[in-house]
Amino acid sequence: MSGRVESRLAELGLVLPTPALAVANYLPFVVSGSLVFVSGQLPLVDGKITVSGRLGAEVSLEDGQSAARQCAINLLAQARAAAGGDLDRVRQVVRLGGFVASTPDFTDQPKVVNSASDLMVAVLGDAGRHSRAAVGVASLPLNAAVEIEAIFELV
């Protein structure tokens, strides 16, 4: 589809990938009423993790931010699938939950997840503003540096 949001993606030079399939006994997203709950997305490109390891150790803040941005791109791909291919149906990004693999002394998890938040606003405007959590964790699946989940509201 070529709506307002798709035009904005093109302006930003972003191409959303085919949404990743679930790799275990869960769904990539669940629609309940007008809400879409998107399972945690990793920084995957072509099925490969783009940034692995822990912030505060082998992963720089900038690489962590890049990973969070890729997670946001993958979240939008899932949201588009949930919305029947039409991201103009997104009324609001309700919440992002960001998980950052990090050392115990790393405290810049919000700075990492900010790049996902910034992307949502860049793509969706005011509808991209959301509540959020940014949490440090010991490790993530596939040694990913970042994982982000989301809740979207559709019209």
TrEMBL record:
PANTHER family, per database record: ENDORIBONUCLEASE L-PSP_CHORISMATE MUTASE-LIKE DOMAIN-CONTAINING PROTEIN (PTHR43760:SF1), ENDORIBONUCLEASE-RELATED (PTHR43760)
Organism classification: Bacteria, Pseudomonadati, Pseudomonadota, Alphaproteobacteria, Rhodospirillales
Name of protein: Enamine deaminase RidA, house cleaning of reactive enamine intermediates, YjgF/YER057c/UK114 family
Listed InterPro entries: Endoribo_LPSP/chorism_mut-like, RutC-like_sf
Species, as recorded: Magnetospirillum fulvum (Rhodospirillum fulvum)
Transmembrane segments: none
Cross-referenced Pfam families: YjgF_endoribonc
Limits of the Endoribonuclease L-PSP/chorismate mutase-like domain: 6-146
